[in-house]
Amino acid sequence: MKTNSPRLAVRAIVVDEGRLLLVNAYPGRKSDLWCAPGGGVERGASLPDNLAREVHEECGLTVRVGPLALVNEFHDPKTGFHQVDLFFRCDILAGSLDPGWADPERVVHTRRFFTPAEIAAIRLKPDSLARVAFGGAGPAHYDPLETIVL
Q1: How far is it, in rounded angstroms, from Cα 41 to Cα 96?
Q2: Residue 19 CB: number of other CB atoms within 10 A?
Q3: Which of 45, 128, 136, 145 could make an SS bond with 49 (beta carbons 3.0 to 4.6 A apart)?
Q4: CATH architecture designation of domain 7-147
């Protein structure tokens, strides 16, 4: 049954040694926009299980999924696409960013950790991600609906 409900996705806020893990997932490197690793939720699996799977697929890392930190939503008025991203704080349990790692779906082509200073020099969505990631624990933050950016 087809539904017009927003797409639900989960994303990881992984801060390690003062650096935030980000990925670029634009095929053909058509955009310089970075985001947190994660992806669409598969039915029948919990949000944490979906997120752990996505981070492993995209980055080769095993993570422990912690508390919800950010809710962000965006849409494309031209197509009607609407996505809600749930960002969870995560800790690395195993693995490292192996340059030879390949996302099985070939979506993510680049992954790396960024310092706050490096983040200031890149395009990143959502705009509040770095502030939330480096701001420490607290109640989850909500970003109002925004128009999609490529």
Answers
A1: 24
A2: 17
A3: 45
A4: Alpha-Beta Complex (3.90)
What gap in Å lies between CA 26 and CA 45, rounded to an integer? Answer: 26
Please write the tens of the pLDDT for every residue from 78-108: 998 999 999 999 999 999 888 888 888 888 8
Domain boundary assignment for the chain: 7-147
